[in-house]
From TrEMBL:
Domain of life: Eukaryota
Record keywords: Cell wall, Cell wall biogenesis/degradation, Glycosidase, Hydrolase, Secreted, Signal
Main subcellular location: secreted
Enzyme Commission identifier(s): 3.2.1.15
SUPFAM superfamilies: Pectin lyase-like
Annotated GO MF terms: polygalacturonase activity
Active site per UniProt: H306
Signal peptide: 1-23
Identification of the protein by name: endo-polygalacturonase
BP terms from Gene Ontology: anther dehiscence; carbohydrate metabolic process; cell wall modification involved in abscission; fruit dehiscence
Family under the similarity heading: Belongs to the glycosyl hydrolase 28 family.
Length: 457
């Protein structure tokens, strides 16, 4: 009787646990047996660190359970939606005229009033109107949650003297918690005059900074959704030192020849989910740089542009750290690069625990590339020994066409080889009738399933 009562349930529990562990084991591609490649002379086995994605404990930050990595505190928004009704305001109520003149002061007054509301506020930019703004700071902390609904168009002034105070920012959201910026409106950076004065367009001009169209700095529990952001002076949308971010259903556009117009730039930001975005610009569709951790980009349509990049990292002998990045379900068309990791010589730190999976390439010049010898200078960069360590990178189910003969390129450091680079079910063929190749230097590489083109010995 004792056996039936106590041991049988225990036995069933153990069987269930074993079954669940077995399923997880089978789903993790790093537990599959590898065919060792010949790009490095010594086969090695590396541990599957991808199951360890989680969050660091930071004081005053909400840290979702690591088992549900990108649950960005939707409970907060649910509670706010059912709380007492927030006050609804229009920027027009504070003197915004949308008559082609500067509406900056009206927007500042509207923000100050909304931010000071203890019951929460919804600030509306009405549709079918164009509001022209100089550089403006939307600063916190605010007394309660705030929603900025943009239905009309916000347009940047074109007088460069308006940006003398800070040439690097236009719309700047700083230190705000529980903020939503959403709507079906347009944010237009009017960047053409800035592009014409770029040293990348006119080599005779000195290189100078240009404003980022929209910056979120040190914001916590942030949602940005539904907007069209176009023709930024330089970068379009930057998340800087933010925690718990959702960015989805965004349409980011600029001409393919516009310089340094990254679509979405992530720096020193943790727990960010970028979902269902269409990005076509003159630089990286998404760029992820130092200090960023727990980044997921899903359902991204990219092109034209420079692809999806981690880096550049380690410039000017700096330390850089990026980890726990997943890029899933992306389509890249006509881009200069596909999925890229780029680091400067002389840097230190790491880029690790990275997955690129379920990606389609159409006529992409460098579909898969790791470049530890990145150099974005007119003069050649000097040779240096130290480098940012690149490790534990998975390329899984990546297919399509390459515009160049080299479909995969791993140009890694001799002193700090790329470690734990896994290719699973990769099929890249040339756009034309040429033969696609793989170029592999100083990389510890493993294959899973069918990989084409493979690295030569």
């Amino acid at each position: 009787m004792f056996l039936k009562t106590h041991c049988l349930p225990l036995f069933i529990t153990l069987i269930s646990l074993f079954s669940s562990c077995f399923c997880i084991y089978r789903e993790d591609p790093f537990h599959i047996g590898f065919r060792q490649g010949h790009a490095y002379h010594r086969p090695r086995t590396y541990h599957p660190y991808f199951g360890t994605f989680g969050f660091s404990n930071q004081r005053n930050y909400y840290n979702p359970n690591s088992a549900n990595l990108f649950n960005y505190n939707n409970e907060i928004w649910s509670r706010l939606d059912t709380a007492r009704a927030p006050v609804t305001l229009k920027v027009d109520d504070f003197g915004a005229l949308a008559n082609g003149r500067d509406d900056s002061e009206a927007f500042k007054k509207a923000w100050k009033y909304a931010c000071s509301s203890s019951q929460g506020a919804i600030l509306v930019v009405p549709q079918n109107k164009i509001y022209r703004l100089k550089p403006i700071d939307f600063s916190g902390p605010c007394k309660s949650a705030l929603v900025l609904k943009i239905y009309g168009t916000i347009e940047a002034t074109v007088d460069h003297s308006d940006y003398k105070k800070n040439r690097r920012q236009w719309l700047y959201f700083d230190n705000v918690q529980n903020l939503r910026v959403e709507g079906e409106g347009v944010i237009n950076g009017n960047g053409r005059t800035w592009w014409q004065k770029s040293c990348k367009i006119n080599k005779a001009l000195p290189c100078q900074e240009a404003p980022t169209a929209v910056t979120f700095n040190e914001c916590i529990n942030l949602r940005v959704a539904g907007l069209q952001i176009k023709n930024a002076q330089q970068m379009h949308l930057t998340f800087q030192k933010c925690v718990n971010v959702q960015a989805f259903n965004l349409y980011v556009t600029a001409p393919g020849n516009s310089p340094n117009t990254d679509g979405i730039h992530v720096t020193e930001t943790q727990n960010i989910n970028i979902n269902n975005c269409v990005i076509s610009t003159g630089d990286d569709c998404i760029s992820i740089v130092s200090g960023s951790k727990n980044v997921r980009a899903t359902g991204i349509t990219c092109g034209p542009g420079h692809g999806i990049s981690i880096g550049s990292l380690g410039a000017r002998n700096s330390a850089a750290y990026v980890s726990n990045v997943i890029v899933n379900k992306a389509t890249l068309s006509g881009t200069a690069n596909g999925v890229r990791i780029k680091t400067w010589q002389g840097g230190s730190g790491y880029a690790k625990n990275i997955k690129f999976q379920n990606i389609v390439m159409h006529n992409v010049s460098n579909p898969i590339i790791i470049d530890q010898n990145y150099c974005d200078r007119q003069k050649p960069c000097s040779k240096q020994v130290s480098a940012v360590q690149v490790s534990n990178v998975l390329y899984q189910n990546i297919r399509g066409t390459s515009a160049s003969n080299v479909a995969m390129k791993f140009d890694c450091s001799r002193s700090f080889p790329c470690q734990g680079i896994f290719l699973q079910d990769v099929a890249l063929r040339p756009q034309e009738e040429d033969i696609a190749e793989a170029s592999c230097s100083n990389v510890r590489l493993s294959y899973i399933g069918n990989v084409s083109p493979p690295c030569s010995s």
